[in-house]
Amino acid sequence: MIRSIQLKNVKKSYGDESILDGLSLTIPSGKFFALLGPSGCGKTTILRLIGGFETVDAGTIYLGDEDITDKPINKRRINTVFQNYALFPHMNVFDNVAYSQTIKKVDPATIKEKVFKILKTVHLESHAYKAINQLSGGQQQRVALARAIINEPEVLLLDEPLAALDFKLREKMLIELVDLQEKLGTTFIYVTHDQFEALTVADQMAIMNYDGEIEQIGTPKEIYEFPNSSFVAKFVGSTNILQGIINSLNGASYMDSGDLGNILIDISRPVTLSGRSQSNGPEWLKDGQEILLSIRPEKILISKKPREGFSNMLKGMVESIVYHGRSTQYNIRLLNNDKLQVFEQNEEHFPQEVIDYDDEVFVYWQKENAVVLER
Amino acid sequence: MKEYLRKALRRETPFFVGIPAFIWLVLYFYVPLTFIVLLSFLLHDSASLLQGLTITHYLSFLTYPYVWIFLRSLFFAFTVSCACLCIGYSLAYFLAFKAGRFKTFFLFLVIIPFFTNFLLHIYAWFFVLERNGFLNNLLQFLGIIKEPLHFLNTAGATLVVMVYCYLPFMVLPLYSILEKFDRKLIESSLDLGATAWQTFTRITIPLTISGIQSGFFLVFIPAFGEFVIPGLVGGDKSLFVGTVISTSMLGAHTMADGAAFTVLTGVLLVVVAALLLCVIRSFERKGNV
Q1: Are B182 and B52 in contact (CB under 8 A)?
Q2: Is the per-residue pLDDT at A275 higher than 60?
Q3: Does domain A5-231 have CATH number 3.10.20.30?
Q4: Which residues of B touch A (CB under 8 A)?
Q5: What residues contact residue B210 under an 8 Å CB cut-off, 6+ apart?
Q6: CATH topology of domain B66-281
Q7: What are B84-124's pLDDT values in tens digits?
Q8: Which one-letter DSSP state was computed for residue A279?
Q9: Which of B185, B190, B198 is opposite residue A73, by nearest beta carbon?
Q10: N or C: which end of chain B has fewer CB within 10 A?
Q11: Domains of chain B, residue spans
């Protein structure tokens, strides 16, 4: 049985420093859940509380409808993959993976069968009798994984498990983790400060801010496309933030942004206020309301010639160009000296229009592709 | 050629650095040890030093009282080492994991005895153990005993004082290894369902076995040859290896006997230590106790 995890009004502080102050969070069962936040935001603390490594100062933790707040760590059917793996250096791969079964006094034949089955899942069956220090980082990672899942936990906690691996290997392991989660059906809670990892693996993800509060919960697509606060918009991916005041003219809403003129905006979609979970709908978006507008760099088009068919167009000058391979990043200085980032796909070897430093350019976007945020 | 020499010199630097210590060791350990071994085989009387070689010095020790003295020393050294290990491990564990910001202070308390004279430690115990001493007063005050007990000049007193004197030698190596111990391993063991005791025996002990080993031998070997403490607080009822050696070596006609006993017990001690080492090492391999 795989049950959900629920934290209710959880408080935790270390000394005088309050890490979590009345945090509530529900993690659905059988999902790959990512907890994304900046370093020191308390995401690891949440993991340690769920795992039982720490005790809450106040509040309750539920596994399904069972209160596990005071259940000892070794009685919880929750296992952890540690950041630096914490493999037992005096045991070989087999003994590490078999550890939880050995202490349960399962008979040796069953253990052997089980261990090799798990090792096969993580592609390590040929390394069973190697010492831990003979393994590469990626292999150690798999041992840690195998050791944690052999116990068939209801919840698997992963604390920045890929932080020590290089980029290529990390990409590969992320895909493997997703496959593994689907195969096992266990709830995975994945803590990371790396938005790429979180977006890649998660079915559901929560974004935490510096104060240890949940800013937004949703699917990676919801989070990325429709952030509900400028913190989320800036933390997940890159974005451009413009500011102004709502106005409407002839039934169309726009943002009066001073020097940049009127920018058309789309306020038909419900918007959630940051930091508060209630959905206010568009009612708070009244004329005269100060707002922020978030536009993802890849949703902006750049050209030296004016074009038709876009809701918004701004003029600017190319300040710098960064070549990323699959895309090129243009840093544009707008008329009011605000900066704007634009990503263009490098679709052709020889683009018709070559944009260079100091060129005067136009940038365009559709109003539906920008997100209105509370200031 | 010059280049070659320079490279060779650089490569052999560790060797040159080691030379002074090596010379020191040869002059003050190997040379005297050779003399002792030679002396133990010399046949002599009061008139002349050398009359030939003999093994009679050795044979005299293969008799009942000396075997008994050897075993008693062994037993005492072993008991003291085990007691030091139990107390020292708890103390080092506390210092490394639980003492927090008072760590340095507590560590200082452990090291303080090194700043005072060894004999002073022993005499300090007189005040605790004597007839009108602290322990008797305490026990009487608590109503546990009516008449003062005899603590001084007993085997128990010897054991207690020896444990006290040798404890820092156990605590320090254990502390240094526990300090570096990755506590994530303990968490990880608990996470996998082990109890605190299982974690201690299967993870903590096997991974700190090198500290246990060095602490144990730092206590066991000197404790085996100890003669000052038994002499002062143990009375003269029971003889120890160290006592026999010191009295023989100081006597005019018994030096060769002392040398023989030194060599004999030294060799036996190496054998016993090797056996103990095997036992300790086996805990590491098995990973459980």
Answers
A1: no
A2: no
A3: no
A4: 182, 184-185, 187-195, 198, 202-203, 206-207, 284, 287
A5: B177
A6: MetI-like fold (1.10.3720)
A7: 999 999 999 999 998 888 888 998 988 888 888 888 888 88
A8: B
A9: B190
A10: N
A11: 66-281
